[in-house]
Task: structure prediction
Amino acid sequence: MRKTTSWIAGITVIAVVLATIVFLSAPANADTAAAEATFKAKCAACHGADGKGETATGKMMKVKDFSSEEVQKMTDADLTAAITAGKGKMPPYKTLSADQVKDLVAYIRAFGKKK
Ligand code: HEC
Result:
């Protein structure tokens, strides 16, 4: 009887720990998914879905490859400014919330990590 009880207690602890991990990691995934959707809808036409800027418009405007060192060495503030205030031929995106812009910056950083 004792043994059975501690077994159940052990399994319950593991279940709670797993549920907590899933719960805590869910928001991060949601943000990435949201940033990806925004990026594909608003940015990919010029920057390409892969961030390399190899679209017709991207080539015409000579956008930089987001995975390049040149873009990755820019600060988060630089990237944020480019998105919210525009840069060169890029239009400013004033309707995005601060959180959306932050997620987009993180999304652009991720391009630098997968090479
Ligand atoms: C109409 C085409 C176009 C669209 C749409 C566009 N961009 Fe750009 N973007 C550009 C161009 C062109 C530059 C380079 C400006 C320069 O260096 O003169 C640029 C630059 C940037 C930069 C600065 C890094 C760099 O390469 O200089 C960031 C960050 C950026 N864009 C993010 C975004 C995000 C995020 C979106 C969507 C919300 C977006 N862009 C939509 C054309 C575009």
In short: The two ends are 56 Å apart (CA to CA). Residues 32-113 form a domain with the Cytochrome Bc1 Complex; Chain D, domain 2 fold (CATH 1.10.760.10). Helices lie at 2-47, 56-61, 69-72, 76-85, 98-113.
